[in-house]
């Protein structure tokens, strides 16, 4: 298990931000590598936050990572190579298929409820 934990704080204007925490207050600043498809993402930065044992991670999402499909970014400790966390971006086609599947499921459940309600009405009248 990693000596650091990662919690997402926000994603705004193309920059993903997370809070890295360590239980040990005197822990050194983590050396972080962020990768997409095993390729390191340049520009990720780690800066201390007011409280000791906490750092702000900022990851600028590169333009080539924006598009159709599912993009999963891994955040790892560069020293131990342990994964601290990840974040995922889903674009266009992959999302559309997911929404269509959810809508089909909702329609099927609604049809089932309508049949059960009609049967209930017939039996109680």
What's this, in brief?
Helix content is 26%, strand content 42%. With 125 residues, it is an alpha+beta fold. The longest helix has 33 residues.
- Beta-strand content: 35-45%
**Uncertain runs with pLDDT below 50, 5 residues or more?**
none
| CATH architecture label name of the domain at 4-90 | Sandwich
| End-to-end gap | 62 Å
**Averaged pLDDT:** 87
Strand order of the largest sheet: 1-2-6-5
Work out the number of β strands: 8
Can you tell me the CATH topology of the domain at 4-90? Immunoglobulin-like
Helix percentage: 25-40%
Q: Structural class of the helix and strand makeup?
A: alpha+beta
Radius of gyration: 22 Å
Shape: elongated
Number of helices: 1
**Largest sheet: number of strands, sense, barrel closure:** 4 strands, antiparallel
Order of helices and strands: EEEEEEEEH
CATH class of the domain at 4-90: Mainly Beta
Give the oligomer, counting copies of the same chain as homo and different chains as hetero: single chain
Provide a descriptive summary of the structure in words:
The protein is of the alpha+beta class and 125 residues long. It has a domain of 87 residues: Immunoglobulin-like (Sandwich), CATH 2.60.40. The chain is built from one helix and eight strands; from the N terminus they run ββββββββα. The protein is elongated.
């Amino acid at each position: 298990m990693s000596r650091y934990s990662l919690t997402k704080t926000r994603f705004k204007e193309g920059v993903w931000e997370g809070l890295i925490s360590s239980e040990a207050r005197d822990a050194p600043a983590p050396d972080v590598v962020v990768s997409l498809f095993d390729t390191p993402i340049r520009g990720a930065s780690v800066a201390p936050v007011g409280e000791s044992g906490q750092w702000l991670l900022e990851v600028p999402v590169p333009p080539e990572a924006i598009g159709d499909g599912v993009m999963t970014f891994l955040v790892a400790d560069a020293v131990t190579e342990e994964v601290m966390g990840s974040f995922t971006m889903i674009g266009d086609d992959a999302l559309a298929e997911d929404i269509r599947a959810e809508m089909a499921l909702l329609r099927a459940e609604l049809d089932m409820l309508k049949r059960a309600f009609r049967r209930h009405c017939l039996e109680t009248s």
